[in-house]
Each structure stands twice: as structure tokens, then as C-alpha cells.
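User: Can you recover a sequence for this backbone? Please restate the input before giving your answer.

Assistant: Of course. Working from this structure:
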């Protein structure tokens, strides 16, 4: 145990899981529990459930689960100790250093954050240095037309054209080579020399919504390649879970957020008064980032570059942002390739007009298709019609399909009913393929072939089900926990993962006289903790959870262990059959 249990319990008692999760997810009461759209995968029908009685959560769609600490670990992409500290700060609790034992799993997140803050100061000072930063200041102030106020606001900096300037500075500040390499500020050559990763580049600090410098982006000041270098994933940073300038935009985005393609576009928009602009970090938008948008706003305007690559990226952004229920529009610019250039040419008022005239996905897609085909030609009209019908088939609302089909009918001079019939045919094919894929997924999951948490389950299916039932009951009732610990040993378990869970629960019980999943979360990954939570949730939904069923399960497990009874294809078929009945 890293932090004493009484401190953990105090922190959890002051951070009610419903209150904490409600700040991230819109929850609705469903009996004694609460439901909402899962923040960890894209869905339209809520499968994410919060259980106030056990202070736990579980998603029946993606399998994410745990307690309030696990939720913060997943949501904020932090380790166990950092999640506990976040919750402690949230509730005004101070954790004395003596209550935290050494936590060595490589370089810690906090060390990376401390190092990044020091590096950000170094980069900014290098930019302001009269001699060292002259070229970078010329680029930012003269060429890109930024003011010093904007430069300071975003904490922009400059990485000197040196192989060791950053390394030497951080070394003097007390950071190790391992920390610099792990934090992606330095690299290591084949001969063992540690060198600066960012050299002769303008630096853009990436700051999270808590004000931590989590990463950096570096841009060249000429036409050399690569144009941008970005921090790779570190213990403090994951590209797919962060957005540039969200730390500023989060307070200005009630009406909308503008999604840009690059740092300079965002900075130009903020400087022009559009302080609700953000950008992804060197990659196309991810589903995780789409879910971040949904936490802060209801509308997103995509403002990507007008080139082919930008438009392809816009297609993906449309898909992911609509999947999380956002109203998505696209901004079409004529006479400029990006927002930065447009504002320089035409001014902020003209750009505001573009925002007001931003187009829906349907308008955007239709214009794109019609630009490809000559609809006066019969063959090309058929091709255009087919592509448009494919787009219409993605709209879940029958009203939307009907309205848009009417517009397409007018444009292509094709009867609306013919268009709707083609749309229905495409939808039937998609549904058929989806059902087939779903059946295959069920088979993989129930047979254990897709089980990354407990891969041994595929060859020990019956024993694994028994083990999970026992572990679920141990979490559910104190008397059942005591019974299992007194009558079972770890050697009675067949699969290694469930054996480890039993050992950790037993250790917690013997040391503290009770069990809380927070007592063992530091020993498991978030996916493993989710599996442990699933065991609890599965038992909670059943009526028969008394000592008699525990006795039967213990007896059954001992018999299965002694007989080396393993699962068979009949077990798999039985599970699939029961799964179909449940559905």
C-alpha cells in the first residue's frame, strides 16, 4: 500500500463518486444508480453506470470500471498516486510526505511535470535573450505578426541551435538523463551521447487544464523538414487525451469550440478575439479527444486547412464529434489556406462571418461530391447519387434522411423515394455486417481469445467463471470475504490473474480487517481494476449472494483445481447461447 488506508478512506469519503463523475459526465437517475454516456468510448445509448451504494462505476459497453480513484486515473491519464493527490487537493486534504512511500515505476509523472516547467522557463528565457532569440523573435513578431503580449500569454519559447543547451540546464537543475529521455526533451545516440531533442525551433508549451506544462511542440522557422516536432507520450502526457490551448478555451467555450489544425492557427484566433479555439497535437483527432470536446461544449466548428489533407482530416473529425452527440459544422475559407492567413488578409470581422455561415456535414459532403462529378452526364449522376446515399445512410434520424433526400432529389432530379430506397438498402447491408461482426466479437470475448487481462481463461473457462464469482462475492459482503479468506488459499485458483486478485484482497483484509478496491488499485492497471469491478457488479445484479452459494463455489473451485478441469467448446457454446438469451 502506497498511501495509508485511513487517508485513502478519508479522501474517498470526501469525494463522492456521483459528484466527481458528474463533473465529467451528464448522469441521469436510474433507480438507485445513475446512467450516462461513457467518457471512455463513443456511444449513443448510455451503458456507463455509477453505483452510489458501492461507490463504484462500470461501463457495460467497453468494460471500464473501478472506484473514484480509478475514474480519475483513466480520465486524467495519471498514475495511482497522482490520482489520489488530485482528489486530495479537490477536497482540501494535505497528504504528508511521510504517508507516501517510495513509488518507483520508472520516472514519475510529477518529476516530468517539474522538469517540463523548468524547461518551459528555459525556452522562454532563450526567446527573450537579445542575442540567442533574435531569429525566433523576428519569426514570431515580424513574420507571423504576433505581439509580445500574445507570446507571453502562450509562454512561447525558443530551443537554441545546440546539441546540449537544454540538457546542461536541466542537469544543473537536478534532473537526470533518464528523466530527460523519458520526458522526450532529450534523445540518446548510438554511442550513448545524450542530446537535445528540440533544436533551433520555436517552442509551444502544451499546458493542461490544471495549468501543468505536459509537453512541447517545436516548429522550424524555414522550410526544412519535419516542420513540427512534438513530444511523444510520456508518464505526464498522452497526445490523444490533450488539446492545445484548452487551458484557455475552457472558460470561453459555452457556445462553441473551434477545432484548428495547428498551433499558429489557434494562437492567431485567440489574438483576434476568438479565444475558444483549440488544436489537436500533431495527429488527426481521436475518439478520446472528441469526448473531451463533449465535456466543454455542444457545438464544434471545424476550421482545417483547405488542402486535400485538411479536408480528409475534417471527414474524420465530423465522424468522431457527431458520435459523441455534438453539433458539428465546417468553416469554408476562400482566398486563404488556413485561419491564420485568412485573418491576416481579411480581418477578424470577416472570419466571424465565416463562423456564422459554417456548413453542416451534409452541406459539406454534398458540395464535395458535386465538385467531383458532372451530373449532366447520366453515368456520373449515378455515381454521385450512390456516394450521397452512402452519406445519408449514416444519419440515424429518419427525419434528417427524409429532409436531406428531398434536397438531393431537387439537385439530381431523381425521385425522393428512389433515393430513400437506395439509402435503406445500404443501411440493411450495414446492419447485416454489424450483426455478423457483433456475433464474431461475442465468440471471441466469451471464448477468451480476446481476453488480454486474463488470457488463461480460454483454457480454464469453467474454473475462471467460478473464480470470478468468488472474487465478486468477496467484494460484496464482509462475511463472505472472511469465509473465503479462511477456506481458500491462492493455490486453489487456476488462473494467474484471479490468483493475484485473491492474494491482494486477502492481504488487504488481513492487514486492515476490511476491503476497499482502492487498497489494491496500485497493484493493477486500470484495465485489470475494471475486471475486478466487473466481478463485483456481476454479483450485485444477482439475487443469490449468500453464504450457501459461496460454499458451493468454494467446493466447486477446489474440485476443478484437483481434477484439472478445463473449459471445452461446449463451455464456449453454452456461454454464447446464454449471451444471446440475455440480449
Amino acid at each position: 500500500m502506497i498511501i495509508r488506508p485511513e487517508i485513502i478512506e478519508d479522501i474517498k469519503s470526501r469525494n463522492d463518486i456521483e459528484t466527481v463523475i458528474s463533473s465529467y459526465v451528464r448522469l441521469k437517475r436510474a433507480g438507485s444508480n445513475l446512467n450516462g454516456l461513457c467518457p471512455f468510448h463513443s456511444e449513443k445509448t448510455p451503458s456507463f453506470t455509477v453505483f452510489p451504494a458501492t461507490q463504484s462505476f462500470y461501463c457495460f459497453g467497453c468494460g471500464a470500471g473501478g472506484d473514484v480513484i480509478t475514474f480519475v486515473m483513466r480520465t486524467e491519464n495519471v498514475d495511482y498516486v497522482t490520482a489520489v493527490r488530485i482528489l486530495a487537493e479537490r477536497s482540501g486534504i494535505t497528504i504528508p510526505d511521510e504517508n507516501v512511500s517510495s513509488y518507483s515505476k520508472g520516472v514519475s509523472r510529477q518529476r516530468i511535470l517539474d522538469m517540463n516547467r523548468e524547461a518551459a522557463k528555459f525556452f522562454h528565457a532563450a526567446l527573450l535573450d537579445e542575442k540567442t532569440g533574435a531569429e525566433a523573435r523576428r519569426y514570431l513578431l515580424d513574420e507571423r505578426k504576433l505581439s509580445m503580449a500574445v507570446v507571453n500569454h502562450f509562454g512561447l519559447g525558443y530551443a537554441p541551435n545546440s546539441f546540449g543547451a537544454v540538457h546542461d540546464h536541466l542537469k544543473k537543475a537536478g534532473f537526470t538523463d533518464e528523466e530527460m529521455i523519458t520526458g522526450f526533451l532529450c534523445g540518446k545516440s548510438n554511442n550513448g551521447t545524450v542530446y537535445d531533442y528540440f533544436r533551433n525551433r520555436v517552442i509551444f508549451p502544451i499546458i493542461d487544464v490544471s495549468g501543468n506544462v505536459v509537453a512541447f511542440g517545436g516548429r522550424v522557422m524555414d522550410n526544412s523538414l519535419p516542420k513540427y516536432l512534438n513530444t511523444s507520450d510520456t508518464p505526464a502526457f498522452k497526445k490523444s487525451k490533450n488539446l492545445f490551448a484548452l487551458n484557455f478555451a475552457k472558460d470561453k467555450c459555452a457556445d462553441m469550440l473551434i477545432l484548428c489544425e495547428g498551433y499558429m492557427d489557434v494562437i492567431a484566433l485567440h489574438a483576434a478575439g476568438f479565444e475558444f479555439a483549440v488544436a489537436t497535437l500533431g495527429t488527426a483527432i481521436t475518439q478520446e479527444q472528441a469526448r473531451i470536446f463533449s465535456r466543454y461544449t455542444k457545438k464544434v466548428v471545424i476550421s482545417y486547412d483547405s488542402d486535400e489533407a485538411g479536408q480528409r482530416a475534417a471527414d474524420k473529425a465530423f465522424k468522431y464529434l457527431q458520435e459523441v452527440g455534438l453539433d458539428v459544422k465546417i468553416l469554408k475559407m476562400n482566398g486563404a489556406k488556413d485561419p491564420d492567413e485568412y485573418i491576416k488578409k481579411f480581418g477578424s470581422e470577416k472570419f466571424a462571418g465565416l463562423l456564422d455561415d459554417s456548413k453542416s456535414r451534409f452541406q459539406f459532403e454534398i458540395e464535395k461530391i458535386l465538385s467531383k462529378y458532372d451530373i449532366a452526364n447520366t453515368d456520373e449522376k449515378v455515381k454521385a447519387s450512390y456516394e450521397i446515399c452512402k452519406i445519408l445512410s449514416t444519419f440515424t434520424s429518419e427525419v434528417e434522411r427524409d429532409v436531406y433526400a428531398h434536397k438531393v432529389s431537387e439537385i439530381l432530379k431523381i425521385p425522393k423515394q428512389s433515393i430513400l430506397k437506395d439509402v435503406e438498402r445500404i443501411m440493411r447491408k450495414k446492419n447485416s455486417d454489424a450483426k455478423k461482426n457483433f456475433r464474431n466479437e461475442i465468440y471471441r470475448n466469451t471464448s477468451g481469445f480476446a481476453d488480454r487481462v486474463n488470457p488463461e481463461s480460454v483454457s480454464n473457462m469453467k474454473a475462471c467463471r467460478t473464480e470470478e464469482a468468488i472474487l465478486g462475492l468477496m467484494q460484496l459482503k464482509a462475511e463472505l470475504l472472511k469465509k473465503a479468506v479462511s477456506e481458500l488459499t491462492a493455490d486453489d485458483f487456476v488462473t494467474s490473474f484471479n490468483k493475484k486478485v485473491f492474494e491482494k484482497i486477502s492481504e488487504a483484509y488481513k492487514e486492515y480487517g476490511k476491503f476497499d478496491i482502492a487498497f489494491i488499485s496500485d497493484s493493477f492497471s486500470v484495465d485489470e481494476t475494471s475486471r475486478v469491478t466487473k466481478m463485483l457488479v456481476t454479483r450485485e445484479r444477482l439475487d443469490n449472494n449468500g453464504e450457501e452459494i459461496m460454499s458451493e463455489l468454494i467446493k466447486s473451485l477446489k474440485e476443478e483445481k484437483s481434477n484439472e478441469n478445463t473449459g471445452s467448446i461446449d463451455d464456449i457454446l453454452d456461454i454464447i447461447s446464454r449471451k444471446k438469451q440475455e440480449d
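That completes the design. The chain has a mean pLDDT of 87.
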